[in-house]
Protein 1
Amino acid sequence: MTLNVLFAGRPERWDEYEPALTTALAEAGLNTRLATDIPPGEVDYIVYAPNGPVSDFRPFTRARAVLSLWAGVETIVDNPTLTQPLCRMVDEGLRLGMAEWVAGHALRHHLGTDLDVRRAPGDWTQRTPPLARERPVTILGLGELGQTAAQILTGIGFPVAGWSRTPKDIPGITCLPGPDGLKQALASAQILVLLLPDTPETTTILNARTLALLPRGAFILNPGRGPLIDDDALIAALDSGQVAHATLDVFRKEPLPEDHPFWRHPHVTVTPHIAADTRPKTAARVIAENIRRSEAGEPLLHLVDRAHGY
Amino acid sequence: MTLNVLFAGRPERWDEYEPALTTALAEAGLNTRLATDIPPGEVDYIVYAPNGPVSDFRPFTRARAVLSLWAGVETIVDNPTLTQPLCRMVDEGLRLGMAEWVAGHALRHHLGTDLDVRRAPGDWTQRTPPLARERPVTILGLGELGQTAAQILTGIGFPVAGWSRTPKDIPGITCLPGPDGLKQALASAQILVLLLPDTPETTTILNARTLALLPRGAFILNPGRGPLIDDDALIAALDSGQVAHATLDVFRKEPLPEDHPFWRHPHVTVTPHIAADTRPKTAARVIAENIRRSEAGEPLLHLVDRAHGY
């Protein structure tokens, strides 16, 4: 039997994804027809991106799963037309790339390399940064992305604490769950990394009140989700020196509007949603594995829990 | 018996080193007099820096060791007045700080964060870097500094190869010894890290011939020693695009003269000899341990092999 797999990502990504998916589906031993124009009633699996062409899932009467290419599913999780199982992407390439972005920007702030990049000719001013082991990092969110970032940061020498809604036990990381844990996690965070999903509970988790709990002069990295931050409160904290610098990869509106104050703030670095770019080769393997599992009656990977929104 | 320990570093470092050494010597159970003005004939141990006040060791007739605060000993190793055992500094703080500098600048070039630091308002150009595992790094020099850097880079995900004069066997690192190994190590080096000592054999190890062996567009990090590089050959390689960028911490003349072309080259980042700053607290423990060993008749740590110059 041939399985009909619809590619419902952005059309301009098809050239990259078509060969990657074709290879991965064949390697998984699946007999599939992969295309962008299958009649909805004949589609068995939907490879989905939130910025792609599909938003009404009702015509896909026999689709057995919606397999997202994105890690974040907040724009689809409340879609009332979606009755099929929804899987988010946890791509090894995305996961590792995200952790590398976090490690690179954490070290950039830790070492103060912006000063070197902008150093004036002849300026021989020597500053010695503390060692990484004297620079505590806190990660909000200890899912697969948070855990991978924590592991790389720990390997560099940073002491890492992590906060999550529910208690976790991860070797080498101080895990601080629940509301009390959040206060404690923020109080020691010389570098704060946001890797939470966007849910009603996490929206503006970084606001005037929580920013005030950070040690003065903290650095903030947000490769997670734009709505985690109250933008105005962050700008006030940057202006007062409470936060030394923020490096932000995600925003409430993307692309970040050219007149948003983040673009010109001297203590903000904007990266254009590149921290967690799904890599077609590794992502295609996850898609293929989930189709294989679905056909074999095995549990799907990275199935979204609609009640919690991720 | 009280041991007389002369501090022969730069006078302006005394305020930092005096408390650190006093604490470390006491913790090692040693009864010492630490000062900057002990008559040479009464000195038992010399805590030495190449830029300090001592260059003639002949008056120190009873000194049992010269304990350098610097990792590099090329300016003292050929001093004919030095007849005492010479130990170089291998400070945990220096070692870790150096590895953090290497990791930070390796990730800076890997991710291309200079583009983010200099990004114009509204520029949403998205580039996805390869994963670290697709970016081979080569370290020339597999001493304690090279090994520590290799370990941190491996933890981040970079495939690491290392070259050393003599064969080494280090888990997780491809070790390539001798002249043939050097060619192989350079051929795969998308990022090349120089952590060799400065000896007659290593001077201008990076020259027109060896630069041509690198893959086109390689990045170079030199936290090792200035004379390892033929400056003119490097500038030619940067101008031709053979080398994409060089981040240099050490130079033939320091401070790097304001008119040196490195300062204004668009593809060179100068850091002012900060990668391997000895940290007084950790360095003082190494000094104290060596005095304890000397007094107990145990082998000294980090004893310099004069024949090889390091």
Note: The helical segments of chain A are 14-27, 92-111, 113-117, 144-156, 178-187, 208-211, 231-240, 280-296.
Protein 2
Amino acid sequence: MAENDFLKWLTDHHAISDASVLAGIGEDDCAWVMTAHGDNLCITTDTLLENVHFTTEATSFDIGWKSVAVNLSDLASSGCKPCWGTVGLGMRKGLGEEWARSLAEGMFACASEYGLSLVGGDTTSGAGPASITVTVVGSPYADQPVLRNGAQVGDVLVVTGALGGSILGRHYRPVPRFDEIAHLLATDPTGVHACMDLSDGLSMDLPRMMNLSETGALITEKYIPYTSDAKELAGRDGKSAFWHSINDGEDFELLLAITPSLFDILEKNWPDNIAPITKIGCVTADQKILIHMADGSTGPLLTQGYEHGFN
Amino acid sequence: MAENDFLKWLTDHHAISDASVLAGIGEDDCAWVMTAHGDNLCITTDTLLENVHFTTEATSFDIGWKSVAVNLSDLASSGCKPCWGTVGLGMRKGLGEEWARSLAEGMFACASEYGLSLVGGDTTSGAGPASITVTVVGSPYADQPVLRNGAQVGDVLVVTGALGGSILGRHYRPVPRFDEIAHLLATDPTGVHACMDLSDGLSMDLPRMMNLSETGALITEKYIPYTSDAKELAGRDGKSAFWHSINDGEDFELLLAITPSLFDILEKNWPDNIAPITKIGCVTADQKILIHMADGSTGPLLTQGYEHGFN
């Protein structure tokens, strides 16, 4: 059983009957809850494991930054701004005091950069590998959070930035796309139907959004923006930059389903000082995920992204 | 550097300037924040590591239960009832599907028992040991949470339940003392000055509360309630049941500083169906932690509880 099946089992077996929970496990990047006086909050958590999500070849400052930034990316993808965060740190004995201090410095630097207050945590130590779990709470820019499951037939699919090759180092410094989602929501909150951040690769994450929305998608190879890192990797391993752009994980760019009319407005007025958005395809009624290739053929998008297994 | 020093360094170097944060890192079991419309919330997180806080000799159901219960204990100690929780799971590859399912069942069973909604999580897997970080949000029973740092000279120190020997198995099934703190607060919220849960042993945790409160304490050996487990362990290792009651970790009982007048009321009317409370001493002006021993001598309480180190 891998992560997707486990989440499905959890949601099937543990339906939440709590009026304060508006979206729970498995449905989204974030859970969405409401306080007694009607404040909407989003909560999300991400765990980084040594030798899976980071190695000590990176500085612990960068590792700390990443541990906070990946959670902030989830908040951004839910259309929320940061409020408060906590850290659960499982240190590997031997990493030492300076490593831990620099890790904390990286966490606080990232939190400060994006307006998150780190308010609590727990520090433990064992034989390792190290584990870092950050949990953050945010509040929506608009009236309510943006979910994954709202894509509608005819929507335009867009991504922020460019994709692929984060393994060359960019994955330690993901940029949560707060400015971009805030601009989208300020332009027309009703035109943003679905959003998620790309953590496991477009070829795995796009089907997730479409499955939850009970829609399909048609994307076009030549539209997909790839990074110079994707090109660099392609030069090394013989795969294409396109292959890396759809299959590499940890881009932390946003994938959005928005109305064509909102896309038209955005295309003409997108600010220069934030990451670009690119139309990569559209949402279809047929629940298939198709890709139109540069050679003129159209076929199913094959999933080759990364999934965590238990066995 | 160990956990206490690391927390001190964090709080010294990263003061929070955020009006929505009323109590942050290092000050308490929980952080205390306020939402836009004035709802007080407490947030806390605890990380359990395989071979430190649990071993696979225990059932994964019990491990799951514990991972939630220890966080609920922090909420109870802050005078808060449970709202929402998230789970960050770092699986060790090889633990397998059934282990993970049963772990989740234990988490959900504990959450359900105490009215917590588990709303989200993240599942990863690596070489292990496994790590489990649960984060919970709660709301105060009274107007505001109870902190650790409010003990006042002349207060009565009380503990719930009995202490020591949790290593014999009780540490997998801690009972968050919601009923007990709720009864205290319903009786007289202004009489409850400070509270914390005993996770690292009374001899380590009592000085923490007194240091934060800038007070001292005088406790009495013969008053300290010990469990049958503490007696059992004493029979095996030649230490006393008293030694285990003050030095063993993971009791998850509450330590409170309350007014003498509240204690008088409680002593006469404590409900039969919840854990007893016992007076163990009083809060003093002299910032020393003293213990009056059964042999008539009085001296400093020596700290022998458990502290996580990084080296």
Note: DSSP finds eight helices and 13 strands in chain B.
